[in-house]
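Archive transcription. Copying these from loose printouts into the bound notebook so they stop getting lost. Printout 1 of 2:
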Amino acid sequence: MPGCGKCGRRLDIIANQVGRRDVCPHCGSELHACIHCRHYDETVAKECKEPFAEVPSDKEDANFCDLYQLGDGADRGGSGSKDALLSAAEALFKKKEQ
């Protein structure tokens, strides 16, 4: 189910029907913006997984991108805390005690 890339709340939108002026009913964020797109990823070049996209400098403002597809509102990249990332890495590489 689609979700807001800013507040993470679920949106009642069917078949990716998002207009340029549509806003999130929960936080008021403009929905046709990079941070809500399924191609948005803070860890890749230009913060967009779509190689042919003309990426705007402001990822939170509405834009006219033809490749826009509403994402699921999940965290897509570098917004995790440093402590949480270190804990996950330690848990992954922790030696098993015998």
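Printout 2 of 2:
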Amino acid sequence: MLRPIYIVLGWIFVAIGVIGIVTPILPTTPFLLLAAGCFAKSSVRFHTWLMTHPKLSQPIIDWQTNGVIRRPAKILATCLIVVNASFPLFFIKTIPDHLKIIILIVISLVLLFIWTRPSSPATGSKNQ
């Protein structure tokens, strides 16, 4: 009964993830992780397709096996987050100061999370 819902959600998440590749405001990997989870619950064929895709599978595999966010992805994410956050913080004068502080705190926490994840698999891990 839930299988069709998971399949539809999986494809929606794949589409959003692919859009995120070329759109600075959307993250790619979290949506691909959601898609992988949906496909794992609904379709072996779609899950296999996603997990063997030459462009989309590596961030999923890195995260699932080792909790890794590769350094180029960290740098790209940091640049895009800073650029996108700079616009409302510095160029929209009608945003109240307390909202700007909240934005800065959230961005700082997101960047802290990203940069505290390993950049490569640990020595002796199963994915080397």
